[in-house]
């Protein structure tokens, strides 16, 4: 078995980040198409459990609303260093540097190895972008990643907390609290309300069919979160 397929078996949740960038491509978020192309993503395979185009549309709407809202909130914080934990494969690094911010992308090493060279090619201001492989539950890895970064930090967490057990989530929250007490800044996360966002969006778009389409979405996510 190759190192890559072993890493994929140990960290199946990283595939959720690939699904997210496929959906961003569908939503025409700038940079997503180029990233999906550089990763040679097979969107048919990644979106295969979403049974029809409408279910894909509902998911793309959720992802787009979250991505664009997070970018606005990070900008509204007024903080010039954006720390994305986890950064996944999104084009946020490109957006943030184009809008005058420093960007620090943190994720599992398997993701960073893939996304860093792609963003370095695509981001005009590549010197304002850094990436580190971390484990959000391990404070030393976070501290090591930020060794030459100065505060304050705007830490964003999108699409991660729901995959942790309660103990792991407590550890991640304590780690972020420690970082903020050292560097200053703020933490922005939509994760506690992700189910609400899915239900509200699907209900608004699909009405009575929303439950069936939500079930198809849940099946896709469950295969990737074990
Ligand atoms: C649903 S994706 C979200 C990625 C990105 N924020 C987005 O919106 O597309 C979940 C991400 O969490 C990352 N992840 C899972 N466990 C992690 C951990 N312990 N430490 C750091 N990142 C982790 C995965 O590698 C994956 O990139």
Q: Tags for this entry?
A:
alpha/beta, Methyltransferase domain-containing protein, 5 strands, binds S-adenosylmethionine, Rossmann fold, 58% helix, SAM-dependent_MTases_sf, 226 residues
Give a structural overview:
With 226 residues, the protein is α/β, with parallel strands linked by helices. The protein has a single domain (3-225), classed as 3-Layer(aba) Sandwich (Rossmann fold), CATH 3.40.50.150. It has helices at 3-10, 14-26, 32-38, 43-46, 53-77, 92-98, 109-122, 139-145, 166-183, 194-206, 210-225, and strands at 81-84, 102-107, 129-133, 153-156, 185-188. Strands 3-2-1-4-5 form a five-stranded parallel β-sheet, with helices on both faces. It is globular. S-adenosylmethionine (SAM) binds at residues 13-14, 16-17, 20, 86, 88, 90, 107-108, 111, 134-137, 158-160, 163.
Ligands in the model, by name, code or SMILES, are:
S-adenosylmethionine
The largest pleated sheet is described as:
5 strands, parallel
Helix content: 55-70%
- Which value, in Å, is the CA radius of gyration? 17 Å
* Average residue pLDDT: 88
CATH topological fold name: Rossmann fold
């Amino acid at each position: 078995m190759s190192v890559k397929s072993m890493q994929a078996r140990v960290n199946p949740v990283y595939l959720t980040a690939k699904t997210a960038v496929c959906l961003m491509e569908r939503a025409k978020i700038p940079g997503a198409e180029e990233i999906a192309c550089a990763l040679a993503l097979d969107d048919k395979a990644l979106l295969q459990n979403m049974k029809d185009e409408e279910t894909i549309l509902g998911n793309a709407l959720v992802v787009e609303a979250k991505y664009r809202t997070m970018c606005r909130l990070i900008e509204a914080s007024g903080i010039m260093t954006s720390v994305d934990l986890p950064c996944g494969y999104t084009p946020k690094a490109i957006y943030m540097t184009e809008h005058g911010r420093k960007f620090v992308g943190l994720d599992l090493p398997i993701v960073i190895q893939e996304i860093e060279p792609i963003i370095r090619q695509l981001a005009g201001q590549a010197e304002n972008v850094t990436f580190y492989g971390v484990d959000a539950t391990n404070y030393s890895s976070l501290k090591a990643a930020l060794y030459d970064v100065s505060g304050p930090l705007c830490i964003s967490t999108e699409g991660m907390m729901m995959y942790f057990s309660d103990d792991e989530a407590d550890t991640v929250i304590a780690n972020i609290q420690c970082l903020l007490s050292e560097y200053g800044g703020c933490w922005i996360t939509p994760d506690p309300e992700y189910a609400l966002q899915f239900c509200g969006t699907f209900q608004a778009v699909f009405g009575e069919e929303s439950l069936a389409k939500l079930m198809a979405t849940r099946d896709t996510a469950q295969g990737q979160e074990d």
